[in-house]
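Hello,

Our lab assistant flagged a job as stuck in the queue for most of the afternoon. It eventually completed. Since we weren't sure the result was trustworthy after the delay, we are filing this so someone can double-check. Below is the sequence as submitted and the structure that was eventually returned. Let us know if re-running is recommended.
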Amino acid sequence: MSFPRILAARPSRSALFAVLLPVAASGTVLRAQGPDSAAIAALAKNPGAQLPLDPRARVRTLPNGLRYYIRQNARPEKRAELRLVVNIGSIVEDDDQLGLAHMLEHMAFNGTRHFAKTQIVDFIERAGMKFGADLNAGTSFDETVYQLQLPTDTGGYIPRALDWFADIAGGGLTLDSAEMNKERPVVIEEWRLGKGAQERMQQKQFPVLFRNSRYAQRLPIGTKESLDKFTRAQLARLYLDWYRPDLMAVVVVGDIKPDSVEALIKAKFGAIPAAPTTVRSRDLAAVPGHTETLVAIASDAEAQESNVGVIWKQPVVKRTTVGEYAQDVAGGMFLSMLNDRFGEITRKPDAPFVDAGAGQGRLVRATESFSLSAVVEDGGIERGLAAILAEAERVRRFGFTETEFAREKTQIARSLDIQFAERDKTESGTFAARYVDHFLTGDPLLGIEIRAPLTRALLPQITLAQVNAFAQEWMVERNRVILASAPIKPGVKLPTDSALLAVLNNSRAATLTAYVDNSSDASIVANPPTPGKIVAERKLDAIGVTEWTLSNGARVLIKPTDFKADEILVTGVSIGGVGGVPPDRYYSARLGPLLLERGGAGTIDAIALQKMLAGKVAAVSADVDDRTESVGGQTSPRDLDLFFQLMWAKLETPRVDTAAVTAIKQQYVAFVKNRSNEPTAVYGDTIGETMAQYHPLAKPVTEEAIKAFDVNVSLDVFRDRFKDFSDFTFVVVGAVDMAALRPLVEKWVASLPGGGRKEVAHDPGIRPPTGTITKVVKKGVEPKATTTILITGKTPWTREGAMRAAAISAILDIRMRETLREDLGGTYGVGVGVGLDRWPEERFTTSVTFGASPARIDSLSNVALDVLRKFANDGPTSDELSKVRENLLRERETALKENEFWITMLQNQVLWGDDASDSYLTFANRVKALDPGSIKALAKIVLNTANMAKFTLLPEK
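-- returned structure --
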């Protein structure tokens, strides 16, 4: 596993912006302290005081040892998140059980006391939810977690779901031999999916990183040999040894009645017998320390990038007292400021790394780590390692500056303000994840009602010296591991172990100067524009939208909502785009907005602008595609004026920074230059080019193309696309006050230049091929294959047709899963999509994609085609249609309470002429009107294989 992949699997340490990291569950129920200001102030002055529990969480332990967490939460409405947490993962497996903790998780979906075979999946689908998205599970080194999202307004779904959890927890898995042998090949296909360059390099690095630890030999997926040969007795032994109430917790969060849920939990789980006193002990697997620095260098012909970094393994730090929490806050500040410095370096030309970062958190359950890592250019491992070590050493010697420290405190305070404002708008899934972590690792569970005022009270006590001290505490000369990885390619020489050790050892003697915190006091808009006017207003009462027409010809659609207390989304869009731009200018035009974003705004460069926006919520970006140009972003009520200033400056005074352009070209080159190494990338490029009939605008981006990007072309096209706003419509959705918005729109939006331009989009002429196409791509060394079936053709777009296409996609997804996965055991998963396009012409695309062993890929492809033909001939069953209707209604039910849904819906009104009011009012009736006949009629069109392309990825040998 290459270095960044390891980091990505592990949380960074910051108690301010995320959940507190998990530690050992004690079973003690702390008495919650309310958010009384005097009590919080007293708590902040007592470093040894125990941190209180979230006052809104009901945490109890049954006599048999099972823990449960209950919280009433109304976001999303009429939904609940449920978790069954088992405090064991692959680390507890015996030598003859490799991969069986994960296999046992799979078997929970294949027969329990209350749900025969795969009835749990049928149950969730009848509730209008989806397998995978709303019903899933995961097994890691140290834990197994089962999760569901269910409706709470009808159907008695929670009691039934708890029956399933109780079956799993109370010895109710059937572990039927026939079902086990059907599921065995499915798990083997999951194992096959994970094979590749990353896995091969991981096999070289893990034994070094986890030297003398069980973690080196206990990957959750197990081994092919074990999965092929394990017996029911081995699986049952793991189940009986480890699935017991003292190692489990139930979590229920959502739009529920806590007393009723608690009664259900007691009734369904209280009768499970407590574990006998002779049970196996759930010991934490150690990762032994070492005085010498270990090195693991891995290379692979299919690797796409070069990486390097250092991990310092650390003991787990307790975080249960006020003083420990304050130290955690300080550690988070250290990481954030160091990462800001790395970010500055990546924006400079000839940077020693493409990307870099610092992190701290749990490596595995019993071991934490601090890490420095970088993605570097090929051949640049030693240079990149020296650079990240030098920046860390700069902090160790000179510390952070007072201005960096002040800016970080501002960021933290604002983050707390936002979280506190959204305390009643937080999704139930967020709370469920926190409770899972609390059970597994025992860290304190502070609710935001306590965390926000406590952190504010602690911030003045945290000193810069305290933060700077982490450089000494974390970067020590023991327990270090250097990890590096790179592609195998001509002209690229891997460094030796001794060379990397020399870089590390020499880092303390490097010649360095103190960091200078340059900033700008310039105004984002030096000369504010003369305001325009709102010249007309109308109401769309059915959907609560107000429309303003501005003096420059632009329109503004506003929908105030209370879904989020501190969120406003803004987008402005017009028809035009760059579909008619010549091929030699096309990619420069498409990349233009990004190049200009890296330039900053007005007279302020991007780095200074980022510092200026510390503690603000004002993110603005622009985009151009073949059909449209757009600008928008996210802000909050208090920063709305700043947001519009920033938007105006980016549009009217775009700034070119040649150094930033050079830097971004270098970064993009590093990301694409090894693309041809990776089998799935080559496969995807083949599909893309073939389906576009090798159109020049559909070619994969190459190193040469990036180097040829012309920022002057980017600027010219950008200015042209955003020079006339009379055909723009802006959409504003969220916690917006209409009276406060009016003068800002007149000043910053109505003042944008108009001119009466009316445009149509230029069709670039990309069309899919006709007839039958079969292509085989041979790339890679692993015994894995992938097939993609694409069916295309013309059909009119209608709202009803789009809904029928969604229904066909959902039903085929179920049928493919049941046939290819459940019945044949041939694949881990199948992706099915049926979509209707409106532009550049009205047409459809149907896709089916799945992976399998090379020996079975062709036969499974034929089965998949049979599934399509049968559906086209027979249409849906009444049971399938019932599930689809319920799912569509349930999805819309939650979507209506999301700002993203409304801004998309109103933007579609702008782009396509949709009637948002009618779409909103008639949706339920259109769902109910779905009938087998109309779906079958569309299926005959979208599943007609007259124009079909079949692509297969096979290993080279």
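-- support follow-up --
The delay was a queue issue, not a problem with the job. The result is valid. The chain has 32 helices and 23 strands. Residues 534-748 form a domain with the Cytochrome Bc1 Complex; Chain A, domain 1 fold (CATH 3.30.830.10).
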